[in-house]
Give the backbone structure.
Amino acid sequence: MSKQRILVVDDERSMREFLGILLEREGYEVEKAGTAELGLAAFERNPHDLVLTDLNLPGMSGLDLLRLLKTRAASSARDVPVIMITAYGTAATAVEAMKRGAFDYVMKPFNNDELKLLARRALDMRALGEENLRLKTELRDRYHYHTLVGSSPAMQEVYALIERVKDTRINSLIEGESGTGKELVARAIHFSGVRRDHPFVAVNCGAIPENLIESELFGYKKGAFTGAQRDKIGFFAAADKGTIFLDEIGEMPLLTQVKVLRAIQEKKVNPVGSTEERSVDVRILAATNKELEAEVRLGAFREDLFYRLNVITIRVPPLRERRADIIELARHFIARHAKEYGKPIEGLTPDTARLLQHHDFPGNVRELENLIERSVALAPGPRITADLLPDKFRPRDDTSLEDNQISFPSEGIELDERIRSYEYTWLTRALDEAGGNKTKAADLLGMSFRSFRYRLQKHGISTD
Ligand SMILES: Nc1ncnc2c1ncn2[C@@H]1O[C@H](COP(=O)(O)OP(=O)(O)OP(=O)(O)O)[C@@H](O)[C@H]1O
Ligand SMILES: [Mg+2]
């Protein structure tokens, strides 16, 4: 661990020197300044962990310095403790300083041990504060939608919808293939919106046996059936004022659908075996990987409930429709799992990146994450090389198109997709060939720099 850094501000040179020696002997790194102005400049350059300042200074006073440091902390969420050094007769100002957020003050002449102890305490306090802040941020980030990685236009649309519904009671239906991130979107809505301090209750409608689903959702009264030995609160009531996430809503039995519809319309639930209704205020987010509208047409899902749930539809696109996100997500997962496995993995080789970009990911983001986790666990070196990927990633030779011997599959092909992938291959090859130099790469492809750059953007190829 690097040394803790202390800034000492005093206009009296011998005092500065003395404090320097005293604190350096304690193992701290000390920087000294003769005026508040110089001290502030030093702090701006490289913030310290603790500031010790004299109250009476020529020019800007110690109190001013304190105020500036505290305002700065308020805008950067990083507070620095300040200990004031006061001379006899300035006790009133010292009290003022405490009111303005100083950690403590010492009166000259001071006892050396007392000062050292005070510095230690201030630094410990700060470390504790930082730790709390880190934990809080971690907890918040875990659910904050910024952890939804991906800046493709398709995801921007998803973010825009999250913004639109997060602070409202609007029920939304989140549609998307398996592994696209539907649950993450639901959490993002809840934890970034006004309901975030109330519960988020996730219910997998497909996993609860049909005969239990009603009592799970709405609770039951003691004695409602054999085994009901006490009242049980249901998921709806548990999510009061918060959000209930009905995952795999398409699996919900028709009879239960009727009751959920009632709960939505009347904002009340009726526990099994009870005659009393209970008011609930819940926002419903439902998710499905089926096309729910088709289920409605088939009569497997109630139309009225469908419209109640589906006030806003958020469609989370499959990964193959937002290839620009693949590398960004891969990096995100590498960072996460490298930390978990304690391996210093930096990233992907260009070959691996290319192979990932071309893969269709039927299992979407989940598949990519599993793949990355596995590669991180296996990687012997600092980068994920192509040979760590499963066999299905072995390259088909894209360049063989040139010999005109294309066999045409009977089911036909997606020409646009083929062209896109062909273009991608040549763009990244040219970049590799040119050692990352875009002007040179554009030359190699016989196109202008601008048009090359445009195409890089189109494919989401990042060159940093
Ligand atoms: N945009 C994203 N950014 C970061 N991680 C993501 C993103 N999308 C999905 N993930 C991760 O991928 C995994 C699958 O996501 P999630 O469980 O939300 O998918 P799902 O659509 O609910 O899948 P299923 O239909 O199979 O239940 C999770 O580990 C999730 O954290
Ligand atoms: Mg899910």
About this structure: The pocket of adenosine-5'-triphosphate (ligand 1) is lined by residues 148-150, 176, 178-184, 289, 329, 332, 365-366, 369 (CB under 6 Å). The longest strand covers residues 283-288. Residues 5-140 form a domain with the Rossmann fold fold (CATH 3.40.50.2300). Residues 112-143 form the longest helix (32 residues).
